Amino acid sequence: GNSVTQMEGPVTLSEEAFLTINCTYTATGYPSLFWYVQYPGEGLQLLLKATKADDKGSNKGFEATYRKETTSFHLEKGSVQVSDSAVYFCALREGGYQKVTFGTGTKLQVIP
Amino acid sequence: DAMVIQNPRYQVTQFGKPVTLSCSQTLNHNVMYWYQQKSSQAPKLLFHYYDKDFNNEADTPDNFQSRRPNTSFCFLDIRSPGLGDAAMYLCATSKPGQGLYEQYFGPGTRLTVT
C-alpha cells in the first residue's frame, strides 16, 4: 500500500535559518503530492502541491520538488520566521479522490 | 468567504454518553470527510460521503456513525465514547474534478472524554 515517511521532529531553528523537512513516499503509480500545515489549535491548510515528476510546488516562500527517481518531496524554505512554527504534513493522493495518505507530521519551532 | 465550519471547537463528554459533532460547508463540494487525529499522529480517515453515498473505512469502529442530511452539513455521531476516542476530529471537503481533489479542512473539534 501507499505510505509517506517524514523526518521526526521536533525541528528547532533560529529565525532566518534555512529549513528542510524530508519526505519520502511509497506508491504503486504516479501520485500527486502535497504539503499541509497545521497551526496550533487549527485544522490542516494546503501549503503546496505537485502533480508530476520535476514539478515544483511553492507558496509563502516554501518550495518542494517532486523527485520521482528518489521518491521524495522535501519541503524547503530559505529563511524561516517565528510565524512558521507549526506542524507540517506530507501527503500523497493516488487513484480516487478519497485516498489521501498522510505522513505523521513534523513539528517546527522557530525561535527569535 | 467559502469555508468549512466545525462546531463546537471544543467538546467535553462523559464516558459512554453519546455525542454529536457537526460540520458545515459553503463550498458546495460533493465529498465530505471525517478524520480522527490523535496527538502527534497523522489524521486517520474514518469515513466519507460522496453526495449521499456513505463510504466507511474498514477499520472504523462501529461506535462511529455519520449522517449527511444535505450537501452543506455532515455529522459525526459517537454512540458510546470511550477514553480512547479523545482526539481532534477534522472535517474536510473536496470536489472531484477540481484542483487535484485537494481537501479543504475545517478547524477541528477537540473532544475530551471524562
Quickly list its features.
heterodimer, A: 112 residues, mainly beta, 6-stranded mixed beta sheet, 4-stranded antiparallel beta sheet, globular, B: 114 residues, 7-stranded mixed beta sheet, 11 strands, 51% strand
Short description:
The complex is a heterodimer of chains A (112) and B (114). With 112 residues, chain A is mostly beta strands.
Provide a descriptive summary of the structure in words.
The complex is a heterodimer of chains A (112) and B (114). Chain A is mostly beta strands and 112 residues long. Chain A contains no helices and twelve strands. Helix content of chain A is 0%, strand content 51%. Chain A is globular, with a radius of gyration of 13 Å. Chain B is mainly beta. Chain B contains no helices and eleven strands. Chain A binds chain B through residues 32, 34, 36, 41-46, 49, 51, 89, 93, 97-98, 100, 102-105, 107, and chain B through 4, 6, 31, 33, 40-43, 45, 48, 50, 55, 90, 92, 94, 96, 100-108.
SSE arrangement:
The complex is a heterodimer of chains A (112) and B (114).
Chain A: E1 3-6, E2 11-14, E3 19-21, E4 23-26, E5 32-38, E6 44-50, E7 56-59, E8 62-65, E9 75-77, E10 86-93, E11 100-102, E12 106-111
Parallel strand pairs in A: 2-12
Antiparallel strand pairs in A: 1-4, 3-9, 5-6, 5-10, 7-8, 8-9, 10-11, 10-12
Chain B: E1 4-7, E2 10-13, E3 19-25, E4 31-37, E5 44-50, E6 53-56, E7 64-67, E8 73-78, E9 87-94, E10 104-105, E11 109-113
Parallel strand pairs in B: 2-11
Antiparallel strand pairs in B: 1-3, 3-8, 4-5, 4-9, 5-6, 7-8, 9-10, 9-11
